[in-house]
């Protein structure tokens, strides 16, 4: 099966849905975005990777009021790896309740599953210096 224009739209919407679910507190619906055994790698923030959808939801609940009030994703670039696997790279902007913001890059492994496209691995890379520190 070929990675079609419809697949590109579906994967891009999948990546966008993460922010909508988190910002609305619908963490019980994260299985619409991630595989059950997702690895959500937040080691760039000094934390151990989260293993599984339940761990991702629990981490969001534990963060509570420290969660961003807005997760915004942009600059989505998709590369087909195989007919059922895609590498996705996107930029994330988090807006906090106090108005401060942060920037990350999401590196996603996305799989075609019987339930549709799902992210099986996400690496979140924080941006702390301009030009990726290569200035």
Automatic annotation (TrEMBL):
Signal peptide: none annotated. SUPFAM superfamilies: NTF2-like. It comes from the Bacteria. Residues 5-123 form the SnoaL-like domain. Transmembrane segments: none annotated. Pfam families: SnoaL_4 (PF13577). This is Nuclear transport factor 2 family protein. It comes from Actinomadura syzygii.
């Amino acid at each position: 099966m070929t990675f079609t224009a419809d697949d590109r739209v579906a994967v891009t919407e999948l990546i966008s849905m993460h922010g909508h679910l988190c910002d609305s507190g619908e963490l019980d619906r994260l299985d619409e975005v991630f595989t059950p055994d997702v690895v959500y790698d937040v080691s760039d923030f000094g934390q151990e990777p989260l293993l599984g959808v339940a761990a991702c939801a629990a981490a969001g609940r534990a963060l509570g009021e420290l969660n961003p009030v807005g997760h915004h994703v942009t600059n989505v670039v998709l590369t087909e790896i195989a007919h059922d696997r895609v590498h996705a790279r996107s930029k994330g902007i988090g807006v906090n309740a106090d108005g401060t913001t942060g920037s990350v890059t999401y590196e996603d492994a996305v799989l075609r599953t019987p339930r549709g496209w799902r992210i099986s691995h996400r690496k979140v890379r924080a941006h702390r210096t301009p030009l990726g520190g290569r200035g």
